[in-house]
Amino acid sequence: MGDERIVVRRPVGPPPFALRVAAVLVVPLLLYALVATGQKAVDNYRLNREADGLRAEIMALRSDNIQLQKQIEQARTDTAIETIAREQLGLIRPGDHPLVLVSQPWIGARQWIGR
User: Fold this and answer.
1) Which tops the pLDDT comparison, 61 or 24?
2) Confidence of residue 1 (pLDDT cuts 50, 70, 90)
3) DSSP states of the chain
């Protein structure tokens, strides 16, 4: 009788009530945690892309700012001020003699009509 084995069989059937309640409570919580984590990952990705775009825009604006500052420095020179005064404002220096070119479009028209 020393070789006899004792086999214990568990009843086949539904799991105990506590196990079913735990599964009903844990599964929705796990699903919610997965969805919330996924949503946070998507939001984080979108915010990182937006931040990269803003960084690139900042770099472009800084470059533009440097170019504009160089233009301001160049426009403050005496040569640039005189050029602007003469070309854009039509001013002359004291002692200059302005030369005004007058075109006579009616002469050409008279010659054309006379032929």
Assistant:
1) 61
2) low
3) -TT------PPPSSPPHHHHHHHHHHHHHHHHHHHHHHHHHHHHHHHHHHHHHHHHHHHHHHHHHHHHHHHHHHHTSHHHHHHHHHHTS----TT---------HHHHHHHHHH-
Residue spans of the domains in the chain: they are 17-92
State the pTM of this model.
0.50
Sign, Cα dihedral of 78, 84, 87, 90: negative
Distance of CA 54 to the CA centre of its chain: 4
